[in-house]
Amino acid sequence: MKNINFLFVLIFGLSLGLTSCEDFLEETVKDQVSVDYIYNSPAGLEVGVNALYNQMRYYNLPSGDNNDLWANVFFMVATDLGLHRTWNTPYGTGHNPQSYTGSKWIQGYKIIDRCSAIITSARSIKMDEAAKKRLVAQARVIRGELYLDLKQMYGGILIDTIPTTPQNINDPVEYKVASDADVYKLIDGDLDYAIANLPFKVDPGRYGQGVARHIRGKSALWQQDWAEAAAQFDAIINDGTHGLVALADVWGQNGNHKESLFTYQKDFLLGPSDDLAGGGGSWLSSVFTHRTYELNTSELVQDVAYGGQALGWFYPNNYLKSLYDQANDLRFKTYYYSDNYQDYKINVPGNPKFGQPITNPAIAAPNGNYRAWHWSLKKYHDSEKLPMTSNSYKDYMYYRVAETYLLASEAYHNLGNDTKALAYLNKVRRRGYTGNPESNVTTFDLTAWTLNNYLDESARELAFENNRWFLLKRLGLLVERQNLYFRSSPSGTISGEVQLKMTPAMINMPIPQSQIDLMGKPAGFNVGYN
């Protein structure tokens, strides 16, 4: 089957790679890297792989306010742990093929096409074989990761490993839903190759064996291959390159620590746009943070300690709050801005009560004002964010070892080994209660592995990272749990909270109708949306 020709080919600049369409090849290349250089030389192959990282950063961490940001935020908040205030509404009237953003589908297949081009062209490039394998392995991790992403999001997907070229771009295509067996065979083949050819220790912002095994373990969990999943997660844990860090450091300013399996790199001096090496400014640090400075302008001005410029679009909900032992679980104060108004000090110069606690916000707004005051997420806090902007250039940790431990716990439970399952679960839990990743304090240990204990501990540790939606879907609990606990407050007040119902069809995201039309409306896609 020829490549999916409705996905227009990427036009890469120096940092992004380049296109392979005929019109571009007829132009004189002045400020871009030539196609021949990328796909026919050792140095070009490396440039092409570097371009994939830039594209993946945009895929998972786009700058500014746009549909690409929404495509990522949705999976972080539209679960049983989230509360919507404004901006795009999860599961609302726009959750359909005609209206919902097609960012993940379109961008995902673009990058897959370029991965396949690099993988294919590398076969004929003469260079050091080990160096070549390491470059190809990085492209194959990304391709395997994207196919797993698409499978998790959309259910029925296409697969193709033939890159688009000027010679085949107009070839006829048969569009059909790939079988689960074929999809996972491709995913696992790519990841197994990467595991065999990548080291654990790599530079920040590079895929290493750790992240390849982590994704491979996730693929195994989707296939209910518990032994394979446990083996992959154990390999990460036992190697020692990666491990838990002190609780205070997990979401600190440095995202390139031992717990990180992979962190997207940002650098304002090398940016500040997505098509440059440093990337553009991300809004994640503002999306989930309340605007305390709107409570009382005589008492508060923007302060980076309180999140700085904020948007307050989404928040953790009361159900998530109820899962924490607020007196003892240190994550409650570490992963979230305090919900105690006395922790916020008057910071307006000249105010006679400067440095004293702010006025009780409940007095100023008896019914609540979620935009200005709500329990909010601190994980993406940027202590170096410039004032009066939502743009953050803090590196973004995307995969981390705490999730590895939790997923390994699930795998071992399904293998009938609850002793090891609890050991892994409590490893993360002890760090949460003591702050120490090597703690042996058993005071707060869970003594039984149950699905609820597992889901609750996963929520406490990983809330508002890119995993809860997919975990619940894999376990068959997404619709039930979302409908029980997810809330929306269009008025931004306590009394305005309402349920947003998720239908069973929504366990698969809507493929853009424009893409379905270009494929000739084949059967098997967007089931339940028609």
UniProtKB/TrEMBL annotation:
Coiled coil: none annotated. It comes from the Bacteria. InterPro entries: SusD_RagB_dom, TPR-like_helical_dom_sf. Pfam families: SusD_RagB. Its main location: membrane. The keyword Metal-binding does not apply. This is RagB/SusD family nutrient uptake outer membrane protein. The lineage of its organism: Bacteria, Pseudomonadati, Bacteroidota, Flavobacteriia, Flavobacteriales.
